[in-house]
Amino acid sequence: MKHNIIPKALRWMAAAGLCLAAAACSKDDITPEPAPQQGITPTKIIFNVTRGGYDGDAETRAPKSEWKEGDVISLSSPDARGATTYNGKATYTDGEWMVTITEPIISSKLYAQYAENSTLSSTGIFEDIENGDVAYTYSGSYKVDEAGVATITLRLDRHPQGRMTFTGVGKGKELTVLGMKYASLFRCYESLPRYTEAPITLTGEDDGTATLYALPTPSIVTEAGITLTVEYEGKLYTKTFAGKEFKENSNITLAAPSLEGGWAEAVTEYTAADLKMGDYLYSDGTTSDGGLRKLYRDGTVETAPEAVAPEAGKTVIGIVFHAGRHATDSSDYTMPLTAGGPTLAGEVRGYAVALTHANNADYDAANWVKGPNGESGFSVGTSTDEDDWNGYANCRAIHDYVTAHAGEGWEMRHFQAAWACETYGNRSLDYDGTPTSAYEWQAPLKAPAGTSGWFLPSCGQLWYMMPYQDYLNSRFMAAKEVSAAELQEYVKEFHFQSYWSSTKDDYYSAKAMSVHFKDRDRYGVSRNNKYLVSRPVIVF
């Protein structure tokens, strides 16, 4: 239905209902158009909004059931310079829309965003979004006729997440889905929301269904299909759905997991002879069993009945965290990072993380980059993918930048976080290029021949270790017990601070991604921040 209002009297009625979903688009290519209504102050406003469905949705539900008390729609539009400006919001109250306009709308184009379970800030940001529907449009319209009657038309039919409905869960029962990321923050001036990767717990509704709104992370998507891992009724289940695709606007319905339904227990089993997470990597390039026998996707492990110590007479330099080349690693390990440094010409056997930080202590924490004149906010060419394993390729890109700008005084040491990692075991200079003996303790931990050498990991590589940090920490401590006395003070568990990655923040060029193990989170940090540490990794 429609309802005329006086501006800022704030009560708009909406014609609400379902419509077919459309492909998502970006507002980056939208340019503002001078509107014929510029300069006209509306005397009445007609507000029409429809809320679109997901793929295959039937238009069967009553329009009003699509909105609930307290729902909020954010309104924004291009200003005279073409920049997106937050104009106000519409709040669903007592079956009507209560609208607040904080900035005049001067364009005929209108943008709108909606998040089902969230709060909208005074600047047009949906914050702390919880599991629920998120919708938007960048093709809304705003028109004012000569009589001063304004008409706003919105079709919220684009969804940055897919919808997955589990049937038969049971009223009030919980079901937790792993390997997903959900929209957690949506700014009015950004084309798509920001996502958070974390287990998502759902609760069965009155009809026994539980609905997930999310996107899969790359780790659960392969050419074979999508592999789901779900915790339900005290068990962890997994199942690969061949040919299934779960993306923006997707709509999938599944039965609650059970062994009878073709799901399997989500666990990988190992023998002592298998290369696996937690194994010890030695200075001669060999490995030995670390004791892992069962690995669960939620970070739970089962180990050998008796503790497995490192081999006597050998120096442990790292702990294995993945066996085989990861599917998202496209690095060329035949190209050394340092002159005369090690290279890996054969197959990738696995990845290991150093026993220590590349820094001596907190006082020795480093910037991601600090140029010859203090520069930090510029593009280097590293990956922006938070999940890929291209840490080595990122470091190669940094070297390429240094080579291209050597005439401007650039050296690798200006990229402090990466340089501290790649010189790990051989470092003889401080960040200013002054000779120092402060890092001589690292010498026994230098990279063996036939490996990639140590390097700054990608965000995806750090993030992969995060759920298993308790087990990896136990391996660090087991290695510490047999390490030389001069090394023991440096062998540490994963730190309570954030760790630098070699991945660039996809939203802000002046930031790099960091991973905080204690908070189990990842986020962009200004690259001139000097309070983060680096943990080298190696491929062998």
Measured on Cα atoms, how large is the radius of gyration?
27 Å
Structural classification: mainly beta
* Range of helix content: under 10%
The description of the largest β-sheet is: 9 strands, mixed
Description:
There is one protein chain. With 540 residues, the chain is mainly beta. The chain has 5 helices and 33 strands. The strands form 6 sheets. A 9-stranded mixed β-sheet has the order 1-3-11-10-7-4-5-6-2, with no helix packed on it. A hairpin with a 4-residue loop joins strand 10 (134-144) and strand 11. Helix content is 9%, strand content 33%.
Name its key features:
9% helix, seven-stranded mixed beta sheet, mainly beta, nine-stranded mixed beta sheet, 540 residues, globular, disordered N terminus
Provide a brief overview of the structure.
With 540 residues, the protein is mainly beta. Helix content is 9%, strand content 33%. It has helices at residues 391-404, 416-422, 459-465, 469-482, 485-488, and strands spanning 4-5, 11-12, 44-51, 72-78, 84-93, 96-101, 109-115, 119-120, 125-127, 134-144, 149-156, 162-167, 174-178, 180-187, 194-197, 200-203, 210-216, 221-222, 225-232, 235-242, 251-255, 264-265, 267-269, 280-282, 287-288, 292-296, 301-303, 316-323, 350-354, 498-504, 511-516, 521-526, 537-539.
Question: What is the fold's blueprint, element by element?
Answer:
Blueprint: E1 4-5, E2 11-12, E3 44-51, E4 72-78, E5 84-93, E6 96-101, E7 109-115, E8 119-120, E9 125-127, E10 134-144, E11 149-156, E12 162-167, E13 174-178, E14 180-187, E15 194-197, E16 200-203, E17 210-216, E18 221-222, E19 225-232, E20 235-242, E21 251-255, E22 264-265, E23 267-269, E24 280-282, E25 287-288, E26 292-296, E27 301-303, E28 316-323, E29 350-354, H1 391-404, H2 416-422, H3 459-465, H4 469-482, H5 485-488, E30 498-504, E31 511-516, E32 521-526, E33 537-539
Parallel strand pairs: 3-11, 12-21
Antiparallel strand pairs: 1-3, 2-6, 4-5, 4-7, 5-6, 7-10, 8-9, 9-14, 10-11, 12-17, 13-16, 13-19, 14-15, 14-17, 18-19, 19-20, 20-22, 23-26, 24-25, 24-28, 26-27, 28-29, 29-33, 30-31, 31-32
